[in-house]
């Protein structure tokens, strides 16, 4: 009897607990739904940004560079990304992000962006903001990442979210403006890839004869300003340059500084590797806007086969021919005004057709260092502290015997103390350099 009583009070107790739990759940859900949403809407706004959105990386970049994130997470999310021009897209100049981009820091070194996984908090305009990184595990590397970044602004208006996004965008712009993007084609792939972001190179950091520098900068400047003239006169809005001369004389460096000076990007193509007539046409057509197209070591294409009807090919065996190259250069529309710069150590190997006045408007020789360049370089390198050593140096190094790259090497080796560049050091340097240059200098 007592046992039965115990059992029924036990059942009653269980039912009671169950009933109370049930009522609590119903009350919780009803109240939460009814009032929680209201409270939530009053207290915070959320913006969700998918990793496929361009804004995602801009935010990550800004957060990791400028915000001190409070978090107890011991896990960080690493971001790097590469911008790739969309292959075979009907939309011109579309840029997509696939995989990692390595950003560069002040020193020009690569830096990878990291922000903590989970939720972190920071303060923006005196408002608390939380940022939650939700990452979904991908089953394979081919599957696009579907991470999201959730931005939650507490006790602030929607405007605050707008402000944060705008600030991140401005930050991104300022970073991009400090750098020059270097695009390259991948062999056998019809895509432009951002190969690196280089800190803008100052024109003054390239030591050239003043006349050479002024002529080139002046010409590009006139070209950029003459869009209307080209339109009204019906002349194709293109400008072609050939920079030729021995290795290490500053051709590539000058292109980089030119791009920085005119706030342009650089697209480098190597005609000798994995390019066919069709892909060349496609890639020139897809050159990202506001960029300088560069055919580096253009002679290499013409030494590959010795046959101008077959100057290269892709992996499928599709040919690149001189006609195909000329056709692409002559027929593609140039809304932006195409600037093409070709470089070579062997001008004599380039067919005249490619150098015709409609294709190459200016040929500029980059020669071995003359005394003007040596002086400029020495003064800049040693910050005018050792100018008294210059006369002896110039007496030893004759005009046009060593390259600026070789000189740069010498100065780097003695960067702390140029007084250690003794006569015997100089003699050895000059004879080594001359030996190398006479072997390589088979250009006109
Ligand atoms: N005129 C110059 N002014 C400043 N730096 C130079 C100059 N020439 C060469 N250098 C330095 O030497 C190195 C190689 O130079 P760069 O690649 O510009 O030469 P290049 O003429 O393009 O050579 P190549 O014909 O082999 O492609 C770079 O580190 C660059 O900074």
UniProtKB/TrEMBL annotation:
One of its GO terms (cellular component) is mitochondrial inner membrane. It comes from Tieghemostelium lacteum (Slime mold). InterPro entries: AAA+_ATPase, AAA_lid_BCS1, ATPase_AAA_core, BCS1_N, Mitochondrial_chaperone_BCS1, P-loop_NTPase. It is found in: Mitochondrion inner membrane. GO terms for molecular function: ATP binding; ATP hydrolysis activity. Its main location: mitochondrion. The keyword Cell membrane does not apply. Keywords: ATP-binding, Hydrolase, Membrane, Mitochondrion, Mitochondrion inner membrane, Nucleotide-binding, Transmembrane, Transmembrane helix. Belongs to the AAA ATPase family. BCS1 subfamily. It catalyses: ATP + H2O = ADP + phosphate + H(+). The keyword Transmembrane helix applies. The chain crosses the membrane at residues 12-32. Residues 13-206 form the BCS1 N-terminal domain. This is AAA ATPase domain-containing protein. It holds the Pfam family BCS1_N. Residues 237-366 form the AAA+ ATPase domain. It is a single-pass membrane protein.
């Amino acid at each position: 009897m007592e046992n039965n009583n115990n059992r029924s009070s036990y059942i009653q107790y269980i039912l009671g607990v169950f009933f109370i739990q049930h009522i609590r759940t119903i009350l919780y859900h009803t109240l939460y739904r009814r009032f929680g949403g209201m409270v939530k809407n009053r207290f915070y706004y959320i913006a969700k940004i998918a990793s496929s959105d361009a804004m995602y990386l801009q935010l990550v970049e800004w957060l990791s560079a400028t915000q001190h994130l409070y978090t107890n997470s011991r896990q960080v999310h690493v971001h790097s990304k590469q911008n790739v021009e969309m292959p075979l897209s009907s939309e011109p100049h579309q840029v997509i992000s696939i995989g990692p981009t390595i950003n560069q820091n002040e020193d020009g070194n690569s830096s990878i962006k990291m922000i903590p996984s989970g939720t972190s908090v920071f303060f923006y305009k005196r408002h608390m903001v939380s940022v939650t990184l939700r990452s979904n595990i991908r089953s394979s590397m081919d599957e696009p990442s579907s991470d999201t970044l959730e931005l939650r602004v507490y006790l602030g208006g929607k405007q605050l979210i707008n402000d944060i996004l705008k600030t991140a965008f401005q930050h991104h712009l300022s970073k991009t403006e400090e750098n020059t993007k270097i695009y390259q084609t991948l062999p056998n792939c019809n895509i432009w890839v951002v190969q690196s972001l280089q800190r803008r190179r100052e024109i003054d950091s390239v030591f050239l004869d003043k006349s050479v520098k002024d002529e080139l900068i002046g010409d590009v400047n006139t070209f950029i300003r003459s869009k209307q003239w080209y339109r009204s006169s019906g002349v194709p809005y293109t400008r072609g340059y050939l920079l030729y001369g021995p290795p290490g004389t500053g051709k590539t460096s000058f292109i980089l500084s030119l791009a920085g000076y005119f706030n342009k990007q650089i697209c480098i193509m190597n005609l000798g590797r994995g390019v066919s007539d069709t892909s060349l046409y496609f890639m020139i057509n897809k050159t990202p806007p506001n960029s300088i197209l560069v055919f580096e070591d253009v002679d290499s294409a013409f030494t590959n086969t010795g046959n101008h009807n077959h100057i290269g090919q892709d992996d499928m065996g599709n040919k690149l021919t001189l006609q195909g190259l000329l056709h692409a250069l002559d027929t593609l529309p140039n809304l932006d005004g195409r600037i093409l710069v070709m470089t070579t150590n062997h001008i004599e190997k380039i067919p005249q057709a490619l150098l015709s006045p409609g294709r190459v408007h200016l040929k500029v020789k980059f020669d071995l260092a003359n005394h003007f360049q040596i002086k400029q370089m020495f003064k800049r390198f040693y910050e005018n502290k050792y100018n008294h050593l210059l006369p002896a140096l110039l007496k030893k190094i004759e005009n046009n015997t060593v390259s600026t790259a070789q000189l740069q090497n010498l100065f780097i080796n003695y960067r702390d103390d140029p007084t250690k560049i003794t006569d015997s050091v100089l003699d050895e340097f000059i004879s080594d350099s001359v030996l190398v240059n006479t072997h390589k200098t088979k250009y006109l």
